[in-house]
């Protein structure tokens, strides 16, 4: 009996004394969904957080106030700043639901690796949020722009990037852990999606912006930011961004336009595609072979080809695959010539497939990448033509 | 603490002798008294009770005394048959010796269950069981005839364990009717019933039923021994017996299955289990009981095995829902916000905006309110039933949410486990989830999901320590018996369930020979057959 008493005393003490230390009632917290880091004026950084006003996000309880509150604080370490923002915000901020991190262009050019350590180390912050560059803007301004559906920019961007990547492929699908992997892996440099404010940032930062059919300001996906180490090197176009995904074998679905005859185009929906990369070093020169295999269906054509013959499929397929070949090659050449930074991870491929030779060039791989011999080989097969075989165009024209 | 200690000690000290059923009771001999004395003595025993009737009568040329309790016997039967036959004159017959009495009884009441008794205490007992006693002058033995009448409820559908498909009869309060319900289902000479009289003041009939040659003799012996050891003064319900014979009382889980359904008891008897029937209650106990018994019901076997399996899984799921939903709510909302998808978290925050209480208070408030409503619903007079349900629905539902005392989602968090709790086929088992729920909520308020996990681990450890008549409570899952899994989480087709539960160690482990699945007759021209 005495034993029981002691046991229950220990158990009670364990529960009552050890418990509750990280307890937070829902009424005491504000959920942070987005964070922006900019270059500070006096100190190193300006941290901007977007705290959600949950009542406004719920259609039943919303009463037309701003959907979120954005507050900035300046300091030298993000770790401190995440708590210092309470100088302006009332509730305890929880960062576990952070969806988007936006880095100002100015800061990105100077290097970002210092504060990323905090984001990776912190127990609350996940490592799978979207990491974006605000092109020609401050990150804090991007966070302030409102939107009709998800209402807050960070939630909107999260959904938007996801949809874009699945349907067309403009977003590289880079999360924080991908950036860190790219840094730590030999033979790869990180990329990030870049966004831009289309319109007036001032006007975008009000709830009136949500009420307009054409908002005063809108955050749009602009380009692909490419890095050398932790410094921003430059931007590629959205098409390049899609081609990047293609090389990474990350395309889910996409659409391409090919010229089927002079000044006439056809749209192809690519719904299944695989990419394989082979790489090796020959006499100190890298040889990379990219093999793309894609299946597509005709989604619209200006030409009045009649798709009741196998030959027509083959011909059109060849046109399209040449188109893809050119696009992808162009993108790679552009990166090779203008930036000389291996964002595609060809170094990784060579590391796996030709380790002995890679070891020798490991430290100056980017130079090898810049003058690598790259060959793209695409196979595209047209499987279907939508719900019509013969086009009505022939009868009209 | 010390009180409990001394109580426990007291219980240990007492060594109950094994009681022999209907022990021969000694008492004053009948021979030593004449009728007048006996009359006085019976009167003295019963005092001034109104229903004692003592009539003098003369039969076979002899003075006799007819004693009975008017409330216990069928007076119509008494008048019509017994008195007519006994007072009818028969020439040349003298009732002088015991043999004369015997032959008289053989002639008149052969087959009617007469008894000749010789001691005074037996007379009293017989009277209490609803017998009539006829005392003859100068005779050593008295004639006792059973004429008990019980105003029985007719057999109706069980009120607790209803089925859609299956027999609609349920046990009643009369033990003999209950035995007959079982006999009618199992027409087998091996079905045995043994009688015990338990309760020093109530003298309640308790029968144990089992299949001779199937049931494990050791378990039957253990049941006999435990029933024999009971020394309480009163037994009113099988719940009393259940508590007195359980292997352990400090547990919220029932260690004996109780049911109102004769078909359920019958099928359990054939599995090799033992039924305990108590006079005066429609609830029959089945021992040994294991955890999985509380998730299977007779109807599982009456419908398609796929549906039976599906419903069984639903029952396991509901038990878990009933047990942990409120504590998960508390744990996640106060410790683990990151576990919820963002839109859901934001939705809950929006709803809880303005709720003055912490989540745990909110949950406890609503759970207690619900328990009060539930108890009120069971106890209230039928006439006020509607009032309670209207008020209850208002209190627990919209009104509380609108008044800002609780959040809307809270209504769901209370309602889902409440409904899930009613899925449990055995009420006493559902009660375990009801109790443990509160423990989980409180620990979860302090330690979050970590605490929920700790309590669940403790519950599993506790469950595996339990025994029901020596059978591990978690068998056949722990200890794991692969060949017994056909009737645990899934219900396999009946033709494939040939084995009796191995954990019972039955004398006859196979129920029927191997037959295989039923199949259509061979087609015309099929050479294979």
Short synopsis of the structure:
The complex is a heterodimer of chains A (397) and B (529). With 397 residues, chain A is an alpha/beta fold.
Any descriptors?
heterodimer; A: 397 residues; alpha/beta; GMP Synthetase, Chain A, domain 3; 2 domains; 9-stranded mixed beta sheet; 4-stranded mixed beta sheet; B: 529 residues; alpha+beta; 3 domains; 5-stranded antiparallel beta sheet; 16 helices; 12 strands; 12% strand; lipoprotein (chain A); Spore_GerAC-like (chain A)
Task: Give a description of the structure.
- The complex is a heterodimer of chains A (397) and B (529).
- In chain A, strands 1, 2, 3, 4, 5, 6, 7, 8 and 9 form a nine-stranded mixed sheet that branches. Chain A has a four-stranded mixed sheet with strand order 10-11-12-13, with helices on both faces.
- Chain A has helices spanning 2-18, 54-57, 78-84, 105-110, 113-121, 139-144, 153-167, 176-184, 201-204, 238-247, 310-339, 346-353, 355-361, 365-370, 393-396, and strands spanning 29-39, 45-52, 68-75, 92-94, 100-104, 130-134, 191-199, 217-228, 231-236, 254-261, 264-282, 285-301, 373-384.
- In chain A, β1 and β2 form a beta hairpin.
- By secondary structure, chain A is α/β, with parallel strands linked by helices.
- Chain B has 529 residues and is an alpha+beta fold.
- Chain B has three domains: 35-146, no CATH class; 175-289, no CATH class; 305-471, no CATH class.
- Helix content of chain B is 44%, strand content 12%.
- Chain B contains 16 helices and twelve strands.
- In chain B, the strands form three sheets. A five-stranded antiparallel sheet of chain B has the order 1-2-4-5-3, sandwiched between helices. Chain B has a five-stranded antiparallel sheet with strand order 6-7-9-10-8, with helices on both faces.
- In chain B, β11 (467-468) and β12 form a beta hairpin.
- In chain B, 33% of the residues are buried.
- The chains are: A alpha/beta (397), B alpha+beta (529).
- The A-B interface holds A 1, 5, 15-16, 18-20, 22-27, 29, 31, 33, 52, 54-55, 57-58, 61, 94, 96-97, 99, 124, 126, 155 and B 1, 4-5, 333-335, 337-338, 342, 345-353, 355, 358-359, 443, 445-448, 451.
- Chain B: The chain crosses the membrane at residues 313-335, 405-423, 435-461.
- Chain B: Residues 506-529 are annotated as: Disordered.
- Chain B: Keywords: Membrane, Transmembrane, Transmembrane helix.
- Chain B: Belongs to the GerABKA family.
